[in-house]
Amino acid sequence: MMIGILTLFPEMFESMLSCSILGRAQAEGLLAVELMNIRPFSEKKHKNADDYPFGGGVGMVMTAQPIVDAVRHVRATGLAGPCVYLSPRGEPLTQRKVRRLADEESLLLLCGHYEGVDERALELIADDEISVGDYVLTGGELPAMVVIDSLCRLIPGVLGEEESHRTDSFAEGLLEHPHYTRPREFLGMAAPDILISGNHEEIRRWRRKESLRRTWQRRPELLNAVLLTSEDKKFLEEIREEEKAE
Questions:
Q1: 215-228: pLDDT as tens digits
Q2: Dist. CA 57–CA 103, nearest whole Å
Q3: Domain residues for 190?
């Protein structure tokens, strides 16, 4: 997969892209990321890419010209995928949205900054707007990193075990079950006996039930969108009874 990033601060991405899974994915040719600084495309003498907003108000706004020219340059190099603007007003990023984006051969991420981007630029070049949450950051760089990291996990061959991403939280609409590793006991707290039993069917059932428990306790609204099996419904009944008994 090819991802282009348009930003005023490309240096923010260097460490993140060189480490761990993302670094290995690029080294193995499974992921290619191109960082492009918007400033050199500015026609202004000092290559600034922002100006005061019409109508007054605090802060600065990213100007349309360097953004549009930068996108046109990227398009001319062959990156034809959709252009996504990272913005708090965009569609919330969900695992379902990530899966849709992962189907693209290429993607262009536009990182806003300051008070935002001249709307005319967005009308000309943006195909989508994505938000990583109902809060405001200083720029779109961190949201772009979130998008890249979530996409990378779905690229075939990136994870050591292909089943890994299928058991993540939200992969099936539920929160993930708890995890345990060695030592078996830590500060008087023991890992559940069932996980050491070697009974794979019982382990599967335990994990499913605990996944349902966490979802019911922390994000109950997610259960409304999940197709629950008869086994799931039984687990939820047991969980409710267990909660009442405590």
A1: 999 999 999 999 99
A2: 40
A3: 169-245
pLDDT-derived band of residue 246, with 50, 70 and 90 as boundaries? confident
Pair 146, 27 in one domain = yes
241 is catalytic: no
51, 129, 168, 176: which is the annotated catalytic residue?
A: 168
Indicate which residue of 24, 99, 153, 208 is catalytic: 153
Residues 182 and 120 in one domain: no
Q: What is the CATH number of the domain that holds 76?
A: 3.40.1280.10
Candidates 4, 1, 17; CA nearest to 149 is: 17
232 belongs to the catalytic site: no
pTM of this prediction?
0.86
Is there a single domain that holds both residue 201 and residue 128?
no
Catalytic residue among 34, 88, 176, 207: 88
Instruction: Inform me whether the pLDDT recorded for 169 exceeds 70.
Output: no
Tell me if residue 153 is catalytic.
yes
Q: Please state the domain count of the chain.
A: 2
Catalytic residue at 89? no
Neighbours of 181 (CB within 10 A): 8
